[in-house]
Amino acid sequence: MSSVPSPAMDVKSIVVLSPEKELQFRRPFTSVVKRNLVISNAHPTVAIAFKVKTTAPKQYCVRPNSAVVPPNTKLEVQVLLQAMKEDPPADYISKDKFLVQVIKVPLDILNLANDELAGRLQQLWTQAEQLSKSSPAAGADVMFERKLKCVFLPEDSAAEQDTLKPSTANRISDTTAPIKQEFSDATASPRMSEASKGGPSAANLSSTTAAQAAAPLPAADTKVSPTEHSDKPPAPTSAMVEKELREAREKAKTLQAACDGYKAEIERLNMLRQRRGESGAISHSGSAGGNTALQTQHVGLPMPVGAGIAVAAFLIGAYMF
Q: Which of 9, 43, 156, 217 has the most CB atoms at less than 10 Å from its CB?
């Protein structure tokens, strides 16, 4: 006949925790710091099951984080503070907490197979949590809960002069306004956390990390609008090159014809000036009393004609080269 715990039995009276109120972690925190939590079952015939939760599940590792303790036995739980990138300030007061929950377990459940045992334990936990929510007074008889604070201690070299520092830190934290903290199941295996990257606690960073993780990433085939491209002009095609060459040739022909016209006009003007110069020299020599020296005439181009030739040469060079 299986032994079933009496409903009148207070689960609080058979559970012993060591330590009872706080878990002390001594600096330095740049490497993993381990502390032990002993859970004892003081009843000779009733088994208990426990769970360990924490407000900073990314910063601490608990092994095991849940288990069954047979009658009149105890179980040692390892609590590991994950390594930080650097130590927090010397006056930093940790706000991290642990919650130990314990329920009674009938002895006949312990004889079940692994999967069936896990299912029955889950039913017991669900019933105990529902009863605690609906009737806290009745739930206290079924499920025992104990909160433990985390206290950061100085290094061993300063331990003697700061022996009262943990209790002082607790008094300081008690005078501040209470902040509601949510407990989550402690993990049994270490994992990369924000605390290991440099922060003293990862509890306040979980919401930011989740928001960043949920942010959508740009698709790999995202198309870029034409305005987002560089300012480089598109590469010319063969059709565009041929069209520009045709236009350049036509303009070159037009300019060449204009140049030919200017040249013909220049030659005509030169011939005219030469003739006028010769007739003027003869008349001047006769009136001077037989002076046979001819005055040298400088023949030049009119300013408008020279300017037109310069413009035509510039346009030809611009379109041809």
A: 43
Q: Which two structure tokens, joined as six digits, stand for 83?
A: 């390594």
% of the chain with per-residue pLDDT over 90: 39
Helix or strand (DSSP H, E) at 250 = helix 238-287
Q: Which CATH class is domain 11-201?
A: mainly beta
CA angle 63, 149, 23 (to 5 degrees): 50
Q: Which residue has the tokens 């049994």?
A: 188
Average pLDDT over residues 4-11: 57
| Residue pLDDT, tens place only, 163-218 | 334 444 444 334 344 556 778 887 877 655 444 444 444 334 333 333 343 444 33
CA gap 34, 32 in Å, rounded: 7
Residue 128: other Cβ atoms inside 10 A: 21
Dihedrals φ, ψ of 46, to 5°?
A: -110, 130
**Residue matched to tokens 């698709």:** 219
Report the SS3 class of residue 288: coil
Q: What is the mean pLDDT of the chain?
A: 75
Q: Is residue 55 packed enough to be buried (19+ CB in 10 Å), middle (13-18) or exposed (0-12)?
A: buried
Task: Say if residues 83 and 32 touch (Cβ distance below 8 Å).
Answer: yes
Name the residue with tokens 């288990």.
Answer: 67
Question: Bridge partners of 26?
Answer: 153
Q: How do the domains of the chain map onto residue ranges?
A: 11-201, 238-290+298-320
Window from 186-195, 264-273, 281-290 with minimum mean pLDDT: 281-290
Q: Strand, coil or helix: what is 180? A: coil
Distance CA 56, CA 148 (A): 13
Q: Which two tokens stand for residue 38?
A: 């002993």
Closest by CA position to 51, among listed 4, 2, 15: 15
Cα(37)–Cα(78) distance, integer angstroms: 6
Task: Output DSSP code: residue 162.
Answer: T
Cα–Cα distance for residue pair 95/101, rounded to 1 Å = 20
